Structure formats: C-alpha cells, structure tokens
Amino acid sequence: MSEPSFQDDVINELGEDRLTEIAGLLGTDATGARDTVATTIGAMTGDLQAKADTDDDDGNEVRQAFAEVTEAPLEGVATLGGGLGGMLSGGMMAGVLAKVSKPVANAVSKKTGIPAPTIARVIELLIPVLLAVFAKRAAAGKGGGGAAPSAAGSGADSPIPSPGAVPGAAGAAPAAPSAGGSLGDLLGQILGGGKK
C-alpha cells in the first residue's frame, strides 16, 4: 500500500464541492478539473523546488517558507475562505505561492490551452488547500516520535520527484530548518511523501 501523492492529498483536501466549482470555472467535468488541478500542482511544486535550489533571495524565501510551515502548522487554513484574501493567514508560504502563481498560470495555460486568467483563478482556489496540505504533511512528519523532526533516512533517498536533489547541505542557507534533517528531507516530506 503506497502513500498518497502530494497531488492526491490536495485533490482529496479540495473535496467534491471545490472540484465542481473548478470544473465550472474551466467549463469541463470533474475529470477535466482533476487533470488541470494535477497539472497546476505539478507546475507549482516544480517551481518551488527549482526556486529552493537557487542561492538567491527567491531560494532563501522558499526555504524560509518551508521552515515556517514545519515550525507552525497552519491548521484549518482551507476553511478560511479561499482566494488571495483567505491566504493572508498562511504566512510566508502564502506569499511564496502567490509569487509563483502568475508564472505557473502562464506555463499551465501554454500546456493546456486554458486561458492564463482562468488558471490564475484556479490557483487562487488552490492556495488555501495547498497550505493545509503542507501543514498536514509537515505535522505528520513530526508526529513520529516527539518534538524533534529527524530525517527518516539519509538525504540520498529523498523522495522528491525532481530531476535533481534540493541542496540541503548548502551551509549558506540561513533559513534552512534548524531542527534536523536537510532541506531535501523537508521538501521530500512535504511535497514528495516523506516517510514510507
């Protein structure tokens, strides 16, 4: 029995009502909405991983946002109304997701043929759900045995489905989580499934 993917968790957290709302927005059925949501989530997580790989301000911001998610779970975020207004309580991660939303909307639009403004609206609906799933995955990773989140294995077996591993060992990242485990472990835990 395998652990659900990040995309599956987001789709499950969305629920049928929100998926139906997205389908209406897209002018498609539930299957089309699921496919578009999955494509959008894949693009967003890929962009977050790519940014986390960089040694610039964007990379630092993404690493800080993931560290914040693991330190202060954002419980109940999905019930806060959705859209950009609802994500204000999501802290730094909400801001990071908002920043990647336009380039992701453009990329998904090119891939699917759906207008970018429509994809941007879908992303607005997804952000609170993404925040909730990030928080749940981070909390699940901590729940194994006490307060110290330790890496389940070595960084070499990180389940991040990206082409390259996120450099958690780069000591120059002041925002990397200080409670053990590399950034690769952290991103793998939240985005890629973590423990098996």
Task: Give a verbal description of the structure.
Mean pLDDT is 72; it is low at 77-88 and 143-183. This protein is mainly α and 196 residues long. It has helices at residues 6-26, 30-52, 57-71, 83-86, 91-112, 116-142, 183-191. It starts with 5 loop residues before the first helix and ends in a 5-residue tail after the last helix.
Short description:
This protein has about 200 residues and is mainly α.
Q: In percent, how much strand structure appears in the residues?
A: under 5%
Helix count from the secondary structure assignment: 7
The SSE string, one letter per element, is: HHHHHHH
The CA-CA distance between the termini, in Å, is 10 Å
Largest sheet: none
Using DSSP, what is the number of strands? 0
Helix content: 55-70%
- Summing up helix and strand content along with how strands pair, one would put the structural category as mainly alpha
Overall form: globular
Whole-number radius of gyration? 16 Å
Low-pLDDT segments: 77-88, 143-183
Q: Taking all residues together, what is the mean pLDDT?
A: 72
Question: How are the SSEs placed, and which strands pair?
Answer:
Layout: H1 6-26, H2 30-52, H3 57-71, H4 83-86, H5 91-112, H6 116-142, H7 183-191
Helix pairs in contact: 1-2, 1-6, 2-3, 2-5, 3-5, 5-6, 6-7
